[in-house]
């Protein structure tokens, strides 16, 4: 299915026109005019049938675009999860039958977690992203995976620090309200087997950060921004990001934590749009998780008596 040139996106907002990005430093980000009226005129008053329907003044067009993009994004996400789960079941079967490995409670937990990450974030999300690109007739440049610059590295550091600041401030705010956060399921599992965390540190950079940002920023956020604009697109992709983490923060106790997760996801989506590079949110995401894995490991290994507070406040994405 052919689509319009990904560099010719119009969002209807007063910022984030992607065709006026300049050098990726955000300096020319707010410039540019909107030629949506010319497109409507050239198509007889109808939106580009294969292109984006930006968040302009036509409310019906925006709602239609939002609904269709939500459906496609949900389908892409479900495809990624399905591919990952099929691969996980097949891998467990092969290891159990062929090599006699058991995966009952407490057995080969590290292997199981590594398999989940490789097959979901690595294989599942990768396959789903490529399927979406093929469906829309787009190339890899749509994902904005250009070579990083020194400016991108500075953005990674800044967004990483901002993410941790949000985490700390959010936990303090929730504590002041008497609302406790809920620890990630991996953090709880690691409390009985801290060595898991050592494996997760490099995987944060190899799979977790890149895999999740590929799908949620490179595919889902781009799709929503094409339809409803930059601000709304960032919020919509962050909502999907929260959705995939529901199994790790379940129940009413997890709602405050999910709200905090949403805010942090917004910062990564913002960085992606400002820098025009998938490298920035991927590495900021990876560094954010890897730092928490490292802190959890040190605490569980050398100060287990103080680990309960850290386990409950850890927000792993």
Automatic annotation (TrEMBL):
Source organism, top-level taxon: Archaea
Database matches in Pfam families: Rce1-like
Positions with biased composition (Basic and acidic residues): 1-24
Q: Does the keyword Transmembrane helix apply?
A: yes
Name of protein? CAAX prenyl protease 2/Lysostaphin resistance protein A-like domain-containing protein
Q: Which residues form the CAAX prenyl protease 2/Lysostaphin resistance protein A-like domain?
A: 197-290
The alphabetical list of record keywords is: Membrane, Transmembrane, Transmembrane helix
Extract the GO molecular function terms from the UniProt entry.
endopeptidase activity
